[in-house]
Amino acid sequence: MWDTLLFVVLPYVCLAIFVVGHVWRYRNDQFGWTTRTSQVLEKRWLAWGSPLFHFGALFAILGHAAGLLIPTSWTRALGISDHVYHVVAVAAGTVAGVVLCAGLVILLLRRFYVSDRIRVVTTPMDRVLYVLLTVEIGVGMWQTVAINVFGSGYEYRGTVSVWFRQLFVLQPDPSLITAAPAVYGWHAVLACLLLAIWPFTRLVHVWSVPVAYLARPYVVYRQRSAAPGRGKVRA
Question: What pTM value is reported for the model?
Fold first, then answer.
């Protein structure tokens, strides 16, 4: 019963909330469709933490997409052995995870310890998001480092990846993911919960021209006493 609830029902419920929530947010809170940038309150820590977090997250997501969506038969057909794929995936995943963790730690320290002004403007949903992100990234690093770097390793493409692809054809078999080490199931459940809260957090800014966002375009802040040409800070 629990397997069905967690790995069949929960993914679809969270996906429905993800879609409907974005529609509702766009229709009712377009002015809130933003990161609520706090750069005007503190810039030095943000200049380090934000690029590390965003690029680490980008490569981690791309790695997950490749591992979950590309069947083993495809990589074998390209002449890539399972061992080579595993080594490359673990190495790339570890680097991306370390960069992501470094960025997250800097951003958390900045928000909750470095600046009282930033802590004051942190919303309850921000706190929920940071907790989920921290736990999800921690679990992901555990399965990468503890199991695949220092442990015996686990070939998830024959179980977890198959279950994930089955979700798209509405025939998920929960026994596939429960056959994997428990940490893979936790990782999947936390990912579903992140999808569910996504529309109600600052994460909605991802859909606002994400490619241009990586270049951090300027937002103009006007000040009464600002000299001509001043008042521009990065978003």
Answer: 0.83
